[in-house]
């Protein structure tokens, strides 16, 4: 009899069972809108791409070779553990723990125990610490900026709830859209996909929608949105012009600006042109954005006369000067004066994840303790290549002048930097600098292929865990569905073996195996919230529906009602339209107020120069990041095995391109092959190529990546000196048909093994 077992994932709950025909996956029947990404799950057990045993790079053993272009030797677990423990011990004793960089990105599993990021941080803390990263690729510019402007990350973690928007918002102005594809996923899992339903309810009630962005399908067609498609990267200029109109015509909330905002006078000096001689008028913005000045005025009037929610997608800040559109969007909401009112104000990230707009649970979740890292050194996460290539170099970050450490060993468990990072040729060069690279990975990803020691890690299907997320209302017993493939072990088992070799097993395991840790975490959680079931009872039932507070929160409602009694945690206690602290840093690329700063991509007019097109490298609809790129949903989207790239009909005609052609995408950074899809859903002058195709540099004479990974052509440069965030969303390219037969894809082929 086939036994189906429940699992949680970042894209939803499901049950699964191994059958003679492969893994059968069934979406949770209580989910109103299950994610198509569940069709990718069976590919997790595809042995063709799995690391089935420990491997060591042959050239590393022999003191030669290049990471990313070398053969691997299969070794025993005992030998792999001996080698890895020896390298860890050598580096920490010779160079100190600061010379170890612990890399992880946390999206590997929705489980609370087998969370790779928690496991690697716990292990490295036990052995004396490590150089860490801060912030994320998703929100690298937003996190530092929000701390200065509103004092916290509440606009991300506690925005106005979806039911409030569905009931009260009269005009959604969506900068960067509210993409349905992004709301399929949620960090830690999601039991009910509800974003699309809330948007439909708002539309049925009569809400108006305006989409501001280069891709028309970043807002569902059923919402009948007005589409304004500015030149990519010019959102801040458009927002400033909207502020200018509102103030100049007396449509602004003067009282709110006086009582709840700091620095309006300085901001108005800039907007009016008193500071620099240039008024940020609609006519000024039209020249930059390509949006008619009259349309800007009409939009401003509609926003001023309706309960308006300004939504700011995470994509806006993943570009040069990415702090500015977020800050300008907050300023626009301040000028409107609806912050703290039901359905009004602003939100950062609606649609970026399913949990944005859901009230977090009011109690802690089960959690693996990570311990304390005694090493104080860190880098912004998107600056890893800079760190590896430039040890000892100084750089600016959030008002500090910092120095990159000299990293001798990189230890990576969870995540794939060859997906998230930009300029992959430079990243490969950077990964060749350390003396040792150790990676845990279920698959032969590009990161595993740049390692010296590769440990085969299990997937979530091959172990037991607890699944839950702070924005979800379910705690799930994630029961093991199938035995581990090959010799794969969980990250916990790998680190336990290393800790034992280093004489630190009691500190790492605390005498517990997987089952004991799950019970311990559950029982510790019960001290904060007791569901009335002990662990054995919960494990037998398999799922708990968790109570939470009503989804009725309104961002900054208490602050609006009493800004003196409920101040924000900023220096002024108010929203900082002008930040004296940021201004004191003296950064030319991030002044003390929202500003229009011309990015390098616009220093040559759009449509001209060697690279006339904008490439938008957005998140994919067919997978989560690069996970399970070989799965059914992802594979079905490929054309001639390449990642599809959308091209506007006018741009395709000018280049003689047809749907199905293989094209070569070239930038100043690199090149990639992609398959052409002609579509009027993209703005003229824009091509769109999603991230996540597994990096394939196997034919460098043809292209940097022959599979269609856009980070082969994006620049590795920070958003600004303030945040040093990721800028992978936009770059300038040219596209031409690739006339020769494309080389065979090697991304899914394991590296050649020698005996």
TrEMBL record:
<protein>
    <submittedName>
        <fullName>Biotin/methionine sulfoxide reductase</fullName>
    </submittedName>
</protein>
<comment type="similarity">
    <text>Belongs to the prokaryotic molybdopterin-containing oxidoreductase family.</text>
</comment>
<feature type="compositionally biased region" description="Low complexity">
    <location>
        <begin position="746"/>
        <end position="755"/>
    </location>
</feature>
<keyword id="KW-0479">Metal-binding</keyword>
<dbReference type="Pfam" id="PF00384">
    <property type="entry name" value="Molybdopterin"/>
</dbReference>
<dbReference type="GO" id="GO:0030151">
    <property type="term" value="F:molybdenum ion binding"/>
</dbReference>
<feature type="region of interest" description="Disordered">
    <location>
        <begin position="735"/>
        <end position="755"/>
    </location>
</feature>
<dbReference type="GO" id="GO:0043546">
    <property type="term" value="F:molybdopterin cofactor binding"/>
</dbReference>
<dbReference type="Pfam" id="PF01568">
    <property type="entry name" value="Molydop_binding"/>
</dbReference>
<feature type="domain" description="Molybdopterin oxidoreductase">
    <location>
        <begin position="50"/>
        <end position="500"/>
    </location>
</feature>
<feature type="domain" description="Molybdopterin dinucleotide-binding">
    <location>
        <begin position="613"/>
        <end position="726"/>
    </location>
</feature>
<dbReference type="InterPro" id="IPR006657">
    <property type="entry name" value="MoPterin_dinucl-bd_dom"/>
</dbReference>
<dbReference type="GO" id="GO:0009055">
    <property type="term" value="F:electron transfer activity"/>
</dbReference>
<dbReference type="InterPro" id="IPR006656">
    <property type="entry name" value="Mopterin_OxRdtase"/>
</dbReference>
<keyword id="KW-0560">Oxidoreductase</keyword>
<dbReference type="InterPro" id="IPR009010">
    <property type="entry name" value="Asp_de-COase-like_dom_sf"/>
</dbReference>
<keyword id="KW-0500">Molybdenum</keyword>
<dbReference type="GO" id="GO:0009061">
    <property type="term" value="P:anaerobic respiration"/>
</dbReference>
<dbReference type="InterPro" id="IPR050612">
    <property type="entry name" value="Prok_Mopterin_Oxidored"/>
</dbReference>
<dbReference type="GO" id="GO:0030288">
    <property type="term" value="C:outer membrane-bounded periplasmic space"/>
</dbReference>
<dbReference type="GO" id="GO:0016491">
    <property type="term" value="F:oxidoreductase activity"/>
</dbReference>
């Amino acid at each position: 009899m086939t036994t189906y077992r429940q699992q949680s994932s970042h894209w939803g709950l499901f049950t699964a069972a191994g059958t003679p025909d492969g893994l059968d996956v069934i979406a949770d029947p209580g989910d109103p809108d299950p994610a198509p990404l569940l069709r990718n799950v069976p590919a997790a057990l595809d042995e063709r791409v799995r690391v089935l045993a420990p491997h060591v790079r042959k050239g590393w053993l022999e003191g030669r070779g290049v990471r990313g272009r070398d053969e691997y030797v299969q070794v025993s677990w005992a030998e792999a553990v001996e080698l890895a423990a020896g390298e860890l011990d050598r580096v920490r004793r010779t160079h100190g723990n600061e010379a170890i960089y612990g890399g992880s990105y946390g999206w590997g599993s929705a489980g609370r125990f087998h969370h790779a990021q928690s496991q690697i941080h716990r292990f490295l803390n036990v052995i004396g610490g490590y150089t860490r990263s801060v912030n994320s690729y998703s929100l690298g510019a937003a996190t530092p900026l929000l701390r200065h402007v509103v004092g916290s990350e509440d606009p991300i973690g506690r925005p106005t709830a979806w039911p409030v928007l569905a009931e009260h918002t009269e005009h959604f102005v969506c900068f960067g859209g509210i993409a349905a594809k992004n709301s399929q996923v949620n960090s830690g899992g999601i039991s009910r996909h509800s974003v699309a339903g809330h948007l439909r309810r708002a539309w049925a009630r009569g809400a108006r929608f305006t989409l501001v962005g280069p891709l028309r399908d970043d807002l569902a067609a059923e919402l009948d949105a007005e589409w304004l498609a500015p030149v990519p990267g010019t959102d801040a200029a458009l927002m400033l012009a909207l502020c200018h109109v509102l103030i100049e015509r007396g449509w602004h909330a003067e009282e709110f600006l006086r009582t709840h905002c700091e620095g309006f006078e300085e901001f108005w000096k800039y907007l009016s042109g008193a500071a620099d001689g240039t008024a940020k008028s609609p006519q000024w913005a039209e020249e930059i954005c390509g949006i008619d000045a009259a349309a800007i005025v009409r939009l401003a009037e509609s926003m001023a006369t309706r309960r308006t929610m300004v939504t700011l997608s995470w994509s806006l800040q993943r570009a040069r000067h990415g702090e500015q559109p977020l800050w300008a969007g907050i300023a626009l909401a301040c000028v409107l004066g609806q912050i703290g009112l039901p359905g009004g104000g602003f939100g950062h990230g609606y649609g970026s994840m399913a949990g944005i707009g859901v009230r977090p649970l009011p109690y802690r979740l089960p959690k693996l303790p990570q311990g304390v890292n005694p090493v104080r050194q860190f880098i912004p996460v998107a600056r890893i290549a800079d760190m590896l290539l430039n040890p000892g170099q100084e750089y600016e970050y959030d008002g500090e002048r910092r120095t990159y450490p000299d990293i001798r060993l990189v230890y990576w468990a969870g995540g794939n930097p060859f997906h998230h990072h930009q300029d992959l040729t430079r990243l490969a060069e950077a990964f060749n600098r350390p003396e040792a690279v150790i990676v845990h990975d279920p698959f032969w990803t590009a990161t595993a292929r740049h390692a010296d020691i590769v440990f085969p890690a299990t997937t979530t299907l091959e172990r037991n865990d607890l699944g839950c997320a702070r924005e979800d209302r379910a705690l799930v017993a994630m029961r093991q569905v199938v035995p581990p493939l090959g010799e794969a072990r969980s990250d916990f088992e790998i680190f336990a073996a290393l800790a034992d070799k280093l004489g630190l097993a009691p500190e790492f395991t605390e005498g517990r195996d997987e089952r004991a840790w799950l019970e311990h975490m559950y029982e510790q959680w019960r001290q904060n919230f007791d569901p009335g079931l002990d662990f054995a009872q919960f494990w037998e039932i398999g799922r708990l529906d968790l109570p939470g507070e009503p989804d009725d929160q309104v961002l900054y409602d208490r602050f609006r009602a009493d800004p003196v009694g409920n101040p924000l945690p900023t220096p002024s206690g108010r929203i900082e339209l002008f930040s004296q602290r940021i201004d004191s840093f003296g950064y030319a690329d991030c002044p003390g107020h929202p500003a229009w700063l011309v990015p390098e991509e616009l220093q040559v007019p759009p449509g001209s120069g060697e690279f006339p097109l904008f490439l938008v490298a957005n998140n994919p609809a067919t997978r989560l990041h690069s996970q399970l790129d070989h799965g059914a949903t992802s594979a079905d989207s490929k054309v001639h095995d390449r990642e599809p790239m959308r091209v506007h009909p006018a741009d395709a005609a000018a280049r003689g391109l047809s749907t199905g052609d293989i094209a070569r995408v070239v930038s100043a950074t690199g090149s990639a092959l992609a398959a052409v899809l002609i579509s009027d859903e993209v703005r003229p002058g824009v091509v769109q190529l999603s991230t996540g195709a597994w990096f394939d540099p196997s034919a460098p004479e043809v292209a940097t990546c022959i599979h269609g990974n856009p980070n082969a052509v994006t620049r590795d440069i920070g958003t600004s000196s303030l945040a040093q965030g990721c800028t992978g969303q936009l770059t300038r390219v040219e596209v031409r048909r690739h006339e020769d037969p494309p080389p065979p894809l090697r991304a899914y082929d394991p590296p050649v093994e020698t005996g």
